[in-house]
Amino acid sequence: MAANPITPTVPLDTDGKFHGFLRLPHSRNESAWGAVMIPICVIRNGDGPTALLTGANHGDEYEGPVALQSLAWEIAPEDVTGRIIVVPFMNYPAFRAATRVSPIDNVNLNRAFPGRPDGTATQKIANYFNDVLMPMADVVLDFHSGGKTLDFLPYAAAHYLEDEDQQAACEAAVAAFNAPYTMMMREIDNVGMYDTAVEAAGKVFVTTEIGGGGTATAASSRIAIRGARNVLIHAGILRGELSSGPSRKLDMPDDDCFHFATTEGLVEPLADLGEPLAKGQVLARVWPVDRTGLMPLEVFAQRDGVLAARHFPGLVQTGDCLAVLADVAG
Ligand code: ZN
Predict the structure, then answer these.
(1) How far is the centre of ligand 1, averaged over its atoms, from the C-alpha of 209 (Å)?
(2) Which residues contact 18 (CB under 8 A, 6 or more apart)?
(3) How far apart are CA 188 and CA 255, in angstroms?
């Protein structure tokens, strides 16, 4: 297969701090020999581990971009042992359009791994991370939030893995992130995810869900910045003291955690994020949008748990994820 067409405009293995771009050729009506220029910052100081930090894997999630712009600005090479590769806006076309998937090809970057060097723009980005950047990394932190359609309790997460040692290393890095909540996370659709590719390569992987609704808050931005610094300090790459505070452990042990809308309509939430619910309790009602005088559909909690995520917009469509309940594990 062809080599990936993306080229960095900065060196990836030279001491110092470099701001530049990953240049993705993108010939189109507006620019015959044009390119998508994905910002990248590389900070290296001698030998040591490599961290790969990414935001805007989905283009409408903002805590990662905020944290990584801040870190790329503030971290100096003399604070570093090894290398930090920062890509604040991984799916850059989606980030610029403020959309989850790329407006160029409608591809969801986090379902496109391992990607294709001869594929669409998003497939090429996935393939560059899969084949070039990710193999250089010892630890990978990929920021997510709820985007425009979901809102989450702020958590960093690890996945259940076959390799116990790798899972323990991931859990330790997630604990170091020290978000207000720490999650053992179940994916409903893990084929093609960056997470899955990174974990299959044996790396230490940290993902997050920090807030949502298509915006960042002061609190969620602080959590993201502190967490990224903590992961770098934990990995021995960034000088400094771990900043620690309380973190509640959550677990998503089975598919009953996920509640999907079975009708369209107007959502009346009956619980907010972080509230405990008992199995059988009504967590939301969905009202008709075309008339009065009809009873709403009641959505029952399928298990005990706290509300860890919820649908954000006021209207739902059939099949939307309405709520996620998680076990409080400690
Ligand atoms: Zn996301």
Answers:
(1) 8
(2) 10, 11, 41, 42, 43
(3) 8
The alpha carbon of 32 and the centre of ligand 1 are apart by a number of angstroms equal to 31
Measured in angstroms, how far is the CA atom of residue 16 from the centroid of ligand 1? 31
Give the CATH number for residue 292.
Answer: 2.40.50.100
Ligand 1 center from residue 59 Cα (angstroms): 8
Here the tokens at position 117 are 């060097």
**What one-character-per-residue DSSP string does 251-271 give?**
E--SGGGEEE-SS-EEEEESS
Which tokens go with 235? 């990995």
Read out DSSP for 28-52? BTTBTT-EEEEEEEEEEESSS-EEE
Residue 2 lies in a domain: no
Q: What is the pTM of this model?
A: 0.96
The three-class DSSP label of residue 59 is coil
Q: Which residue has the tokens 């997510």?
A: 144
Domain residue limits at 283 = 255-328
What are the C-alpha distances in Å from 186 to residues 1, 77, 246, 257?
33, 37, 23, 9
Q: Which of 251, 280, 308 is the last residue of a domain?
A: 251
Task: Read off the pLDDT of residues 166-220 as tens digits, 9 standing for 90 and up.
Answer: 999 999 999 999 999 999 987 777 899 999 999 999 999 999 999 999 999 999 9
Number of domains in the chain: 2
